[in-house]
Amino acid sequence: MASYKLLLLPGDGIGVEVMAEVERVIDWFNRRGAVSFETESDLVGGAAYDAHGQSISDETMRRADEADAIIFGAVGGPKWDSVPYDVRPEAGLLRLRKDLKLFANLRPAVCYKALAQSSSLKTELVEGLDILILRELTGGVYFGEPKEITELGNGQKRAVDTQVYETYEIDRIARVAFELSRARQSRVTSAEKHNVMKSGVLWKEVVTQTHKDGFEDVTLDHMLADALGMQLVRRPKQFDVILTDNLFGDILSDVAAMLTGSLGMLPSASLGAPDGQTGRRKALYEPVHGSAPDIAGQGKANPLAMIASFGMALRYSFDRGAEADLVEHAVSAVLDEGYRTGDIMADGCRLVGTQEMGEAVVKAMDRLAV
Ligand code: NAD
Ligand code: IPM
Ligand code: MN
């Protein structure tokens, strides 16, 4: 039986709570599935800072490098608001993305049938919604230099963040978008701000060029990122794949999350380039949401984004489409049965906590697998 090594990094706040539920799903596969997983857990984020003064240690990075996939919860929280910038909890996640070269971040926003009424938008606008946001993850303003705050000597300070993109970075994420779109509706909308940003000018130029290099069967449109934000809440179903940079992708994916009912529903996969020899790629799977300090420690968090992120690991790291479908069908089934955490609660449904939701998913897997 195929067996894979997973590094679990629960992190902080609800990251720890939702990770416990994904472990239930992993255990299920170890008991029942045709694929099994060896897991080890480690610290990241504020938890790692508290233990050894760094938001991720070199030893944890080594383990991450060796794992077949990393399953990541969430990091951050008010407790670490005043720690030095370089060791803040979020820096651990950014190091994982950058050092492992996880440039392609897939954020699917799918509105499950049972949740169409939980969206803040009208049901008919989101019913059947299925968008894939492709966010560039290792470049742009997150990593560009200089990045600094300097004293100007007159009581004023100057803060600089730098947006940098090179041709190859745009080209490789565009290729992933075009390729993935072919298994969908073959439509890609690329978002930038070429009207005010040089990096936007290059983004549009490179995406247009890459499109001509063997992807002309895919329909490509360009949209200014602010207008795309507006269209996402006006008529979201017009989109199939949205291709965008690191910062716009961060913002637009939180917007898209609310179309699906809750931030607690959106999974993600962060993928590196396939290895030339083995074809395997480094990958990290995490929910789009954060550590949710407002509900942390109360057993209220929705674990479905975390569980669906593991579903993405089955699909993209282990080529287990049937098993990934099983996880997704189980998530859909528990929603159909009326199980709801607080963030997606609706009239006539059954309010459950994190653990009960995780248990319900595993029970649904039991039923659906026979
Ligand atoms: P957040 O995503 O943690 O929470 C935003 C809102 O959504 C909160 O009201 C929260 O209760 C709710 N929410 C989020 N996930 C939920 C879930 N699974 N179930 C139910 N409700 C959920 O964003 P924030 O409050 O802006 O950030 C809190 C901290 O998390 C910050 O330190 C931030 O940097 C960090 N963060 C980390 C990640 C990550 O680790 N990948 C992502 C985003 C934010
Ligand atoms: C996300 C988060 C991260 C980001 C933070 C925690 C660094 O918001 O994964 O969406 O900005 O990329
Ligand atoms: Mn974000």
Automatic annotation (TrEMBL):
Pathway it works in: Amino-acid biosynthesis; L-leucine biosynthesis; L-leucine from 3-methyl-2-oxobutanoate: step 3/4
Important for catalysis (site feature) positions: Y142, K193
GO molecular function: 3-isopropylmalate dehydrogenase activity; magnesium ion binding; NAD binding
Enzyme Commission number(s): 1.1.1.85
UniProt enzyme class: oxidoreductase
BP terms from Gene Ontology: L-leucine biosynthetic process
Catalysis: reaction(s): (2R,3S)-3-isopropylmalate + NAD(+) = 4-methyl-2-oxopentanoate + CO2 + NADH
Domain Isopropylmalate dehydrogenase-like: 5-361
GO CC terms: cytosol
Coiled coil, from the record: none
SMART domains: Iso_dh
Signal peptide (residue range): none
InterPro entries reported in the protein's UniProt record: IsoCit/isopropylmalate_DH_CS, IsoPropMal-DH-like_dom, Isopropylmalate_DH
PROSITE patterns reported in the protein's UniProt record: IDH_IMDH (PS00470)
Residues annotated for substrate binding in this entry: R97, R107, R135, D226
Keyword Transcription regulation: no
Record note on quaternary structure: Homodimer.
Recorded family membership: Belongs to the isocitrate and isopropylmalate dehydrogenases family. LeuB type 1 subfamily.
The protein's name: 3-isopropylmalate dehydrogenase
Native source organism of the sequence: Lutibaculum baratangense AMV1
